[in-house]
Amino acid sequence: MNTETPVRLLVVDDEPHIADLVATVARYEGWQAVTAGSGEAALVRAAEFVPDIVVLDLMLPGIDGFTVLDRLRESGTAVPVVFLTAKDATADRVAGLTRGGDDYLVKPFSVEELMARLRAVLRRSHSSQARAAALLRVGDLTMNEDTREVARDGKPAELTPTEYELLRYLMRRSPSVMTKAQILDHVWEYDFGGRSNVVELVISHLRRKLDAGNEPLIHTVRGVGYVVRQAAR
């Protein structure tokens, strides 16, 4: 990521004190930050501001955070999104990640933790830009680290930044088995509070996108972790 260009952050929350606090802290770190208090306003702001990353509350007046994300994706943008939710429920976390979100944080939250997670998501989003072009291949699964293009049997797969970085980690270490702890440490890059089930969620999304209708390449090694490799014949 070009350090001379400020990160552009869009904060969407209907509680002005939260949105303003996050935006103020981001500006203190040298980022550009704007806020929106509703789903409709968020879509307008996103089109005008073209953010590098979005903090998106789930509970919004008008259209909710899930619908905002759906419309952002329908517009063709792959901007990373970190959800804020007042509900520490598995269903919310699953829904957020399934809909194309990259991370989530439960209210009340620490602004310092939120900023750490935003930086981690940005690193995952831009990690390939500083490396030379490289093509990873496992069976008929390919990943171009320069263009961030992933394909299975020649058919492109659209991945979120988090899905991409987890798959890249497994492909670069194939055929070794990676534990959940190793994946959390190398992909998320911060203490996830022991909630290793987030790894299972992202793995399940990757399987739906890559293994459906094909020979499985993403395997669970029970009691150990995960591996990307062709099945032994």
Automatic annotation (TrEMBL):
One of its GO terms (cellular component) is protein-DNA complex. Residues 8-122 form the Response regulatory domain. Residues 133-230 form the OmpR/PhoB-type domain. GO terms for biological process: regulation of DNA-templated transcription. InterPro entries: CheY-like_superfamily, OmpR/PhoB-type_DNA-bd, Sig_transdc_resp-reg_receiver, WalR-like, WH-like_DNA-bd_sf. Keywords: DNA-binding, Phosphoprotein, Transcription, Transcription regulation, Two-component regulatory system. Residues 133-230 bind DNA. The modification 4-aspartylphosphate is found at D57. CDD domains: trans_reg_C. It comes from the Bacteria. GO terms for molecular function: phosphorelay response regulator activity; transcription cis-regulatory region binding. This is DNA-binding response regulator. It comes from Amycolatopsis thailandensis.
